[in-house]
Inverse folding.
């Protein structure tokens, strides 16, 4: 039986998070997550409110699916204080170098690339088709947007959003 995932945030980014989680398989080739729910204050498909997240921490892996970098960082800190299990979500079409490190609460979306010796710190978003070249440091709760490129050796400061197609 697969694990359970609660996504905090049922907006556009939360829906991307859900689809990435649905694409992930366990070591036996089965769906990693048997159940995926949303916690959101406005989304009609949400089963609970954001303020109720503590009620779900024991039964569910918890993932912040909110695009606002600073709010995502705040919620991630709250989940850590609750000792929640916070996964890394990586779409199967993404390339992750064996020497790259990706911290909890980060999502790597379809066709993205994280190259050798790069470090993606907690709570970051590596969007569809983004390129993080070798020896890059992406600090906490950043968003490397669709098609953006982090050139070799670059350092992306905390909570920065690289716009689609931006080169740094």
């Amino acid at each position: 039986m697969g694990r359970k995932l609660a996504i905090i945030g049922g907006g556009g980014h939360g829906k991307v998070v859900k689809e990435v989680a649905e694409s992930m398989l366990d070591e036996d080739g089965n769906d990693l997550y048997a159940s995926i729910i949303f916690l959101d204050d406005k989304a009609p498909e949400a089963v609970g409110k954001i303020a109720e997240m503590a009620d779900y921490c024991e039964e569910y892996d918890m993932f912040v699916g909110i695009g606002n970098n600073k709010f995502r960082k705040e919620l991630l800190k709250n989940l850590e204080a609750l000792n929640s299990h916070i996964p890394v979500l990586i779409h199967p079409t993404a390339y992750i170098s064996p020497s790259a490190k990706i911290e909890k609460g980060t999502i790597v979306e379809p066709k993205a690339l994280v190259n050798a010796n790069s470090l993606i710190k907690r709570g970051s978003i590596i969007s569809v088709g983004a390129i993080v070249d070798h020896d890059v440091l992406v600090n906490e709760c950043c968003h490397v947007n669709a098609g953006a490129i982090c050139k070799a050796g670059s350092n992306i400061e905390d909570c920065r959003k690289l716009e689609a197609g931006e080169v740094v």
